[in-house]
Amino acid sequence: MSDDRDRLCGRLRQNGVVQPLLTDLYQITMAYAYWKSGKMQDHAVFDLFFRKNPFQGEFTIFAGLEECLKFLDKFHYSDSDIEYLKSTMSSSVEPKFFEYLKKLNAKDVTLYAIEEGSVVFPRVPLIRIEGPLIMVQLLETTLLTLVNYASLMATNAARYRMVAGKNVALLEFGLRRAQGPDGGLSASKYSYIGGFDGTSNVLAGKLFNIPVKGTHAHAYITSFTGVEELQTKTLAHKQTGQVHDLLALSSTYRESIASDLGALVSEASDGELAALISFAIAFPDGFMALVDTYDVKSIEASAKRQAHVVSLNLKNKLLTNGANKSAQYSVRNGPIISETTPPHKNGFLRRGELGELYVRSGLLNFCAVALALNDLGYKAVGIRIDSGDLAYLSHAARDIFERIATKYNLPWFARLTIVASNDINEETILSLNEQNHKIDCFGIGTHLVTCQRQPALGCVYKMVEINGQPRIKLSQEVDKVTMPGRKIAYRLYGADGHALIDLLQRCCEDPPQVGQKVLCRHPFQESKRAYVIPTQVEPLHKVYWERGNICHPLSTLQEIRNRVQESLKTLRNDHKRNLNPTPYKVAVSDDLYNFIHDLWLQNAPIGELS
Amino acid sequence: MSDDRDRLCGRLRQNGVVQPLLTDLYQITMAYAYWKSGKMQDHAVFDLFFRKNPFQGEFTIFAGLEECLKFLDKFHYSDSDIEYLKSTMSSSVEPKFFEYLKKLNAKDVTLYAIEEGSVVFPRVPLIRIEGPLIMVQLLETTLLTLVNYASLMATNAARYRMVAGKNVALLEFGLRRAQGPDGGLSASKYSYIGGFDGTSNVLAGKLFNIPVKGTHAHAYITSFTGVEELQTKTLAHKQTGQVHDLLALSSTYRESIASDLGALVSEASDGELAALISFAIAFPDGFMALVDTYDVKSIEASAKRQAHVVSLNLKNKLLTNGANKSAQYSVRNGPIISETTPPHKNGFLRRGELGELYVRSGLLNFCAVALALNDLGYKAVGIRIDSGDLAYLSHAARDIFERIATKYNLPWFARLTIVASNDINEETILSLNEQNHKIDCFGIGTHLVTCQRQPALGCVYKMVEINGQPRIKLSQEVDKVTMPGRKIAYRLYGADGHALIDLLQRCCEDPPQVGQKVLCRHPFQESKRAYVIPTQVEPLHKVYWERGNICHPLSTLQEIRNRVQESLKTLRNDHKRNLNPTPYKVAVSDDLYNFIHDLWLQNAPIGELS
């Protein structure tokens, strides 16, 4: 692929639906009212921020900035946009307004932001945007749309990464359950940024250069009924090129492994064997097999058999009008294993039970084909489990792999990849961790992309200054009071290198200095104050857009992804833990504190007693 | 706008990201394995269906079909797609496969579906798709993506419509909280289909011809500090054209209404008055005002005053190093109203308290400007409330409107529109209903578009037949067992015109006949059977795509929207109620029952006792 195409697809192109009309009508209605009242050129400052970290957590990852900049870059109403607005808005709107809109662009706007991929906290503006009132107002909804889901998704992904640990691969499998096509693409992109290793979404791979992964579905397995369906049974040796009968080899191995495991070949599905062989022939170097299509484990098989028994019994009743044969069937076809709880107490498998308990079809067939492939110079990749008790199944699979590794002297066999992918969320992973699971990779769909714990991030976009005059929005809920004026944010670091506190100051103040005591105040609780002596002071905001240009080089997706992990490392663990994390402090300078509260008093009405 | 443009924007165009690569990689991996093993032309039948209605409900609205058909229509791998796949897939993939893919299209596929906008139920295939195995497999993820969120959203919207009742307008306001730009567009489109009246999303309006609505945000109000900022204060009379001073007129009315209500003009915000006047000048025929920017009601104002007291006290403490003045401040600035619960017992406002309790700024200013506008021949539209106790506030606003209507003999004033828009969900509306709210329109965002109660619909896509051979997917969970073979679905209606039951039959069976007894069986519980004598038999599936053509005229969005309401009407109320609805029955014919269970026994392994 040429660099040009890469740039076109990956970096500069943006989903066509991101355009100035992707906004709430009231922005355009207000724009007209501003225009009509001569306020459109008033110099306004807006902050984009959120008030609460998502997912009951105490941090958020900021994402979506690049999309915002691309949006500013191409902001322009097309002729058909103008035509549509004319047809939709009140007939009282003067035609000159539409001429004005037609020429409108974002070149008079200045955008400051925190670096994309940074850890961020409530109330600290992620973006500060300044410029003509009409223009910054018109940007609101689109910027919120571009930042809200992106940040929510990146944060969610980062949380999954933290609970999974760095040695486990994470794949995003959520396209089919996302909010429409582009919801799926955004999920892929921002889960990669948040720390996932890849996606199943091919278009996301193409557009964003994200690794894509995937093998086959249950339908592939069930599309084969038996080995007679195999049109090709042979495969050439990787090195020698000599052609071998993969079916014959696999069948021989299957007999042998079944006997070792005390399993019965007659219970294994031949359709499944055929499917796996055909897949191995197609991808001899990438053989990864779904192993749970038929009877994942005997416990489940027995449950299924019990269901048959019921069905048989009922059938019988209907046929014979009597119930006298039920008992007989129950005895003959009842569960062959008495355990009802998975035998992985203390996270360990009781080996003696393997033969009875374990996979009689999928894993048996997989191992047989994997050993046959090995004879032809190919190393299998691993298995995917998509149902059942994932901790138990991973233990059992790892155990079998280890036993085969020993018996056939193939150390790599013990390290075959185990992928798990059924309805996984943060809690599942935490529970699997406690059970010492043997899973190498999680494929995560629905709960990742829909952000199960909290489906929306509540970023808001508030006016804080107009024509040099600060604006405060009062509310009965103190949390909803906005902090007026242009503000600069600094992150102060402590002696151990961890981030201590984010400090908001008025733009006119001197920045905090390394080694010098700075008074940090709670923005609304007067008595909460602390002196901080920072070992490092990081200004959080940079200019990203000025005079019609993106004025800070855009990071690659990979760079943003790395920044997420680096940024998270600066946070103390207690801010990041899953249960009851400690809130990270966001403070204001003494100057800003007084500024806020003086303005508050000026703006709040004083009641009268009568 | 020309018809051509309409067609381009509204009907035939599709978001550019909907393309064959918008899929999971494993579909393409499987495609290669099918191709490699010579199975790609096997004739396969897949069902797309869901297993459980969303939102703890007992019905679902099927949506997304048109998008699926457009996708089939343009299915084609571009050169750059092929190039990307070559670079991504294993090097063992033969070049001829890519040549094959390049020529692939959906013309050999046949798609049957239920009409978009119909009420549908678990297990009944929404779509049945037949054709070459490789092709129908490649469609899976994209079809699921297009149907899952669309149907979830339409169902959610239909539920909001049901609880709101048909006399209340519903507007979708969710763009800023949706899953990215296209998530927002899909939300607008499918909430309109489900029964909403419009959206704030301008692009959705343009693309789908949905009514768009919106007035202004709090920022508009706070951008004005006083009446001196008004560059224009005059407005011409609608009929006579005579220019009047709207500010002077409004101010006079404000004095008069304040005195009627026992409110103090000094407590009302002049910035707000200026904002409303400027907005009225811009939209004299569409004057709709946000009234909660300053002090929605005194109870809240008092809470805010209490916050000041605390703040003042603390400040005082700091200044004087003593606490002796606290009591004094508490007395002087404490709450001027003693009520702590909203005074709308039994849904009625105690009128005597109005003067003390009610809106001292927003509503006062709105009524003043609305009466001034009336003098100039314009009728105001109404107000929007975006915070606080919506039931109470709507009662109080309606009460004021009625009193003004009486005093000034303006009957239309009593019917001014009240829009409410703060964090609304199904439960809020139900609670507001119980309180006899006076709201005419709800603007609903986050909870609507993120589908709060259940953020994803679990549609699946399962192979049910291959080369004429039925396929069954067994599972330990009976709910997950798929129903094999090609099936036809009928909806049987009872004597009262309501839908009684959906009946699945094998394709080879004769359809049920009106007036003739038909045996309907539970698919898995043998003893659950019933005879039904239908008064009407509706075949649910139609061919929509055959031989490369959309073969059934596509409905307009409006037609689909109407179908939703018509279709819901055929359902008994107990299936639709919010709390503990009765499940609607989905049955199989006796023939299909036996077919399923025979196949089940054939495919399930038989254990051996040792």
Automatic annotation (TrEMBL), chains A, B:
Gene Ontology MF, one: glycosyltransferase activity
Stored InterPro entries: Aldolase_TIM, N/Namide_PRibTrfase, NAPRTase_C, NAPRTase_N, Nic_PRibTrfase-Fam, Nic_PRibTrfase_pncB, Nicotinate_pribotase-like_C
Pathway in which the depicted protein is active: Cofactor biosynthesis; NAD(+) biosynthesis; nicotinate D-ribonucleotide from nicotinate: step 1/1
GO CC, alphabetical: cytosol
Catalytic activities: 5-phospho-alpha-D-ribose 1-diphosphate + nicotinate + ATP + H2O = nicotinate beta-D-ribonucleotide + ADP + phosphate + diphosphate
Coiled-coil region list: none
Enzyme Commission code: 6.3.4.21
A Pfam family this chain is assigned to: NAPRTase
SUPFAM superfamilies in alphabetical order: Nicotinate/Quinolinate PRTase C-terminal domain-like, Nicotinate/Quinolinate PRTase N-terminal domain-like
Domain Nicotinate phosphoribosyltransferase C-terminal positions: 486-595
Keywords for this protein: Glycosyltransferase, Ligase, Phosphoprotein, Pyridine nucleotide biosynthesis, Transferase
EC supergroup of this enzyme: ligase
Domain Nicotinate/nicotinamide phosphoribosyltransferase: 381-482
Family designation: Belongs to the NAPRTase family.
Cross-referenced PANTHER family: NICOTINATE PHOSPHORIBOSYLTRANSFERASE
Record function comment: Catalyzes the first step in the biosynthesis of NAD from nicotinic acid, the ATP-dependent synthesis of beta-nicotinate D-ribonucleotide from nicotinate and 5-phospho-D-ribose 1-phosphate. Helps prevent cellular oxidative stress via its role in NAD biosynthesis.
Protein name: Nicotinate phosphoribosyltransferase
Gene (name only): LOC107263954
